[in-house]
Amino acid sequence: MEVRLLGEVEVRSAGRPLDLGTPQQQVVLAVLVVNARRPVAMEALVDRVWGDDPPANPRPVLYAHLSRIRGLLRQATGPGGAAAARVERRQAGYVLEIDPELVDLHRFRRLVEQGDDRPGDDAASTATLAEALDMWRGEPLAGLPGAWAAQVRTSWHQRRLDALVRWAQAEFRLGRPAAVISAVPDLTAEYPLAEPLEHVLIQSLHAAGRGAEALDRYGVVRRRLAEELGTGPGEELRTLYRTVLAGDRPPPRPASVTDPRSGPAPAAAPTVAAAAAATTPTVAAAAVTDGAPLAVPHGTSHGAFAGASVGSFAGASVDASAGVPPRAGGTFRRRALLTALAAVVLPVATSAAHALRRDECGRGHGDGPPAVSVERAWELFATAEAFDQEGKAHDARAAVVDAVWVSEELVELAPDRSAPALAPAVLRALGRAGVDFGIARSALLDRLGDPVRTPYPAISHAILLRGWRFTAPVFLDAVVRNYEHTAGPTSPRHLADVHTDTLKAAVLESTRTRHGTRTTEFDQLLAP
């Protein structure tokens, strides 16, 4: 005999399901099974079956249900043909006498508790928790009506979520991020607001060298929390996000762990200084200072800038291309070339970027490492531009995603200082995306540098983050005006506040009103 509650309620005997009767009778059975070997008072049965609307005389109905359940259980035999379960009437109420190991819900609870009792033994814990999680067939008590059934579902979903988080954390500690990446994304759709589950997924993506996907994932979580709860990620998730942004190396796999499924540990990324020592090409580039192009002379060696703290975080040097996903990296020589480009472009890009050092972008209360620097954002924008020039649109898109999230973090931490320093880089990136500007460049830079009073930075970041490239004329000022005049959504001051559908409509309308185009579908504006 086997009783299943993790999904549709089932009682199986000799491998075949038994007829459980009406949904109301199934609720009575489920109450007894959930409380196996514990008495359930008649009043509690009435409350759990009918809630606030019981019939005038519920006891005869319950007696009939209990009688049929007794007959049902007589059909479910155990070893040797004996009855595997029976309902007994006691002074305190009705008791289902059954071995808890025959009930999936009770086996699940035992295995989860057993997995929790093995601190320091992650291998045993993951195996036990995985066994428990594999028992989950769907919504507990699926299809059963009533408030009690809903409360049971909520309670056991929370237990499952806790077990999932502990399993994923143990797998990560064992050096098996691939297992987490394979299993967790589908589960986050069931638990969209579970930050601990998202934390270990982002952690695993970062450890697997998939930094751009980790940043994308954080963006999804951030927008979801803003839309559903009107709040942002918690401090633990934000700290992890800043770690990924800074390009810090993933934590190494524990030396004591040996498992053939985990694969080799990712190679350490070269530092800026190492890249500079490996190759010394000549680079010619252009940067923007206060809206004017600044020529970098031919023959300038990037080695002269190797000592600059480009891409550093909390005093530790990191790879200048660390924010670019693995697919964008190519060979070591190409990484070094991009590092060289960043080393030339960034120090001369803007005096504001140099003036705003990492310690100026911190939270200001000395309780942790400072946030990522404006230099890091400029570096990522420069990397994206280099990929654009090479015709590698996919890689450029990934680098822009990284740059946007760095910018968002910096603007949130220090809007008055960060936004003006980043405005020229944002402007250049918008130009590469096919966005034009119907107002004076100086005025546009002022508006891009003022996230407190204008929606320009939020809308610009939203366009860049979505990777849109326009083939028809699109003017940023017209897009912002159209967005602000749309009924419903408020004028956004944060990226999480931008509604994609409203933004698409604003872009589409801008091409009609400014140029009289006949485009009717947003996708018709995008480059293939």
Describe the structure.
The protein has 528 residues and is mostly helical. The chain has 21 helices and nine strands. The protein has helices at 23-34, 42-50, 59-75, 104-116, 122-133, 147-173, 177-188, 195-207, 211-229, 235-245, 272-278, 326-329, 332-349, 351-355, 374-389, 393-413, 415-432, 441-448, 456-465, 476-484, 500-515; strands at 2-4, 10-13, 16-17, 85-90, 93-98, 286-289, 292-295, 435-436, 474-475. The strands form four sheets. It has a three-stranded antiparallel β-sheet with strand order 1-2-3, with no helix packed on it. It has a two-stranded antiparallel ribbon with strand order 4-5. Strand 4 (85-90) and strand 5 form a beta hairpin. Helix 4 (104-116) packs antiparallel against helix 5 (122-133), helix 11 (272-278) packs across helix 13 (332-349) and helix 15 runs parallel beside helix 17 (415-432). Residues 252-371 have low confidence and may be disordered.
